[in-house]
Amino acid sequence: MRCSKHSYVLAFLVVTAGATVSRAQSFDVKTGLWETTTTSDTNGMPAIDTSRMTPEQRARVEGVLKARAGRGPTTRTNRSCMTKEKLEKKSLDEMADRNPNCKTTLLNASSTVVDMKMECSGPMKGNGTVHFEALSRENVKGSVKLVSGDEAHPMTINLNMTSKWLGDACGDVK
Questions:
Q1: Strand intervals (E) in 13-138
Q2: Are strands 153-167 and 139-150 parallel, antiparallel or unpaired?
Q3: Contacts of 51 (CB under 8 A, 6+ apart)
């Protein structure tokens, strides 16, 4: 998988689910149902090789990219179930397996703070930082700042999130 905006978003979703934060294993948050609100703002557009696409595919991709470019920040809220197993999982290693051109390095880990660096090589170069802070065992805030593409087609992605614990029981939420 190329290290594209979609890879970064996937990485961010893993982080907001709490599993990547668990790399610190001492990150002190409660298990159970969590609600995460994420605001993302993307500027710029990476160069995309459309030479192997049909005219219809090319038009669809260009339409999606143009629509995203002008919409400004996007806010989404989702719920996830944080289990002991997820907290103990080493998702950074799993994410690296899915994105062989990307490397994530843990810079700082404590019971309340996790800082990471992401670097991607290959066709879609990029780098960025990830910061998470447990304000309490029931509240986490974080940010992801990424720059990708090349000099002629840079793209910046800024994500801010807040996550709050809702309760012990997750119900049908995974």
A1: 32-44, 74-82, 102-109, 113-120, 126-136
A2: antiparallel
A3: none
Residue 104 in this model has a pLDDT that exceeds 60: yes
Sheet holding 102-109, edge to edge: 74-82, 32-44, 153-167, 139-150, 126-136, 113-120, 102-109
Instruction: List CB contacts of 98: < 8 A, sequence separation 6 or more.
Output: 1, 7, 10
Residue 171 pLDDT more than 70?
A: yes
Of 37-46, 147-156, 163-172, the poorest mean pLDDT is in 147-156
Q: What is the pTM of this model?
A: 0.71
Residue 160's CB is within 10 A of a number of other CB atoms, namely: 16
| Residue length of the chain | 174
Identify each DSSP E strand in 45-101 by its residue range: 74-82
Sign of the CA dihedral running 150, 151, 154, 156: positive
